[in-house]
Amino acid sequence: MASDRYVTWMFGVLLFSSVLFFAKDIPSRIGHHLTLISYGILCLVTLIHSDNTTIKTPRYAIISFAIIWAVYLLHSIIAPLSDSTIGGTTVYIIQSAICVFWLPQTITWNQFTRVVSRIAAAVVIVGLPAAIVPSFFPLHQYTLGPFLITHASAPLSTFSLPIGEITVYPMQSFLSNQNFVGMFVLIGALTSLSEIQRGTRRDIVYFAICAVGVLLAHARTTILALLICVSLYAVFRLGGNTLLRLSAGLGVCGGVLLTGIVFGVIPGPDFLRHLNLSGRRSVWAAVIKAFSQRPFIGYGRTATLDILEELIVGYPPRVTHNAYFWMLLQTGLIGGISFVYVIGQTILQTARSLSDTQSVAVFILLVGISIVMLFEDFVLFGVKSSSLLAGMSLGYGLQTVVENTQLPDQTAHGPLQSSTEEIPS
C-alpha cells in the first residue's frame, strides 16, 4: 500500500476536481479536464510510491467488468456516428479500471476515509451560512473565490427565536443540485463511521457535520440510506457480525417486499402503491419502454442520452434516477446483469467476510451506495465524483473479499489475481 502523504494529497486533489464537475457557474469541462489530469498524476504518484504493484481481485469481478467493457467497445465500433468515439469509451474503461482495481490497492482505507470525510465536511461547512438564514442577517448567497454558495429556492421550515426568525433552506453549497450534495456528503458520513471507531472527538464531529449536510440537502434517498446504514452500524456495535448479517438479510427481504407493494406486484396498502416518487414512475416507465426495444446490448453511451431526451417529457432529461436502469439502457441485458451481479456478489461476499471493523465499514458503505443507486444515476463509469467514490468503494469491497477468502477457484490468476497466489504485474 502506498502510504506517502503525497498520495493522500493527490487523491484529495482528484476528488475535489471531480466534485467541480457539479459546481455551479463553473463550466463542466473545467472539472472534466482537471479530473483527467489528476487521474494521470495520481496514477504516476502511486506507481512511484507503492511498494506493491500486484493487483489482486476476485475472478468474478474481472469477468463482469470485461463483459461491460466489451459492450461499450462494441457500440463504439458498430455505431460510431450515434455513439461515442473510441477515445471516449477508452476513457470510460480506463477510469473504471483505475477506480475499482488500482486505487483501492494503492490508497489505504484510512487515507480514503480521511480525505472523503474532510472534503465532504468542507462542502457542508461552506454551505451552512446560505442554508440556515436568520432574518437579521439574510445571507441567501455569497461568493467564495470562484464559487457561488447558495440554496434551493423553496424553504424547508421557519423557526421563531428571541433573536428573530431563522429560515432553513435545502443546502446546495457551491454545487448545482441538492441531490449531488446529498449523495456526496452521504459518502462522507459513511466513511466517517469507520473513523468513529477510533474513538476521537474529531472523527465524531466530522460524522455529525456530514450527517447534518445529508439532512439539510433534503434528498430523501440519501436520508433513507443514512438512516439504514447508521442502524446497521448500531446493530453491529450492539450484536456483532452475526446480528449485522441477520439484520441486513431481513432488510433486503423487507426492501423487496416494499418494492413489490409500491409497484403493485404484491398486494398491500393503497398509500404505498400511490407513494410519491417525485416523477420517477413515469421516468422508469419510459426507460422500460426504451429497453424493450433494444434489450440485449442497449443503446451505448451517447445514444442513451438522446433516447432519454426524446422519451422523457416534463422532467429533467437525460437521467433515469436508477443506476441499474441506466446500465440496462447503455449495455442491455448483457452488461446490466454483469453490473448487478458484480455489485450484489461483492456485497454478499463482503458480508460473509466480516472479520474486523474495516470490513464492517466497507460493507455498510456498499449497502448505502447500492440503496442510492436505486433512485439516482450513481454509476461506476465516468469522471464525476460519484463514479470515483462508487468505484473505489466497490474496489475496497473486492479487497475485503480477497483478504478473507481461501478458495482458489474464486480468484483470478495471472496479472490480476487473488489471495492465495501473487504474481507481480
Q: Which helices and strands, and how do they pair?
A:
Layout: H1 5-19, H2 28-49, E1 55-56, H3 59-78, H4 86-106, H5 109-131, E2 132-134, E3 142-144, E4 147-151, E5 157-161, E6 164-168, E7 171-173, H6 178-196, H7 201-217, H8 220-262, H9 270-273, H10 280-293, H11 301-311, H12 323-352, H13 357-373, H14 385-404, E8 416-417
Parallel strand pairs: 1-8
Antiparallel strand pairs: 2-6, 3-4, 4-7, 5-6
Describe this structure in words.
This protein has helices at residues 5-19, 28-49, 59-78, 86-106, 109-131, 178-196, 201-217, 220-262, 270-273, 280-293, 301-311, 323-352, 357-373, 385-404; strands at 55-56, 132-134, 142-144, 147-151, 157-161, 164-168, 171-173, 416-417. It is globular. The chain contains 14 helices and eight strands. The longest helix has 43 residues, at 220-262. Helix 6 runs antiparallel to helix 7 (201-217), helix 8 crosses helix 13 (357-373) and helix 10 crosses helix 12 (323-352). 65% of the residues lie in helices and 7% in strands. A hairpin with a 2-residue loop joins strand 5 (157-161) and strand 6 (164-168). By secondary structure, the chain is mainly α.
Give the overall pLDDT as a whole number: 83
Number of H/I helices: 14
* End-to-end distance: 15 Å
How many β-strands, per DSSP? Answer: 8
The description of the largest β-sheet is: 3 strands, antiparallel
What would you call the shape? globular
Roughly how many Å is the radius of gyration?
21 Å
Order of H and E elements: HHEHHHEEEEEEHHHHHHHHHE
Q: Strand pairing plus helix content: what structural class?
A: mainly alpha
- β-strand amount: 5-15%
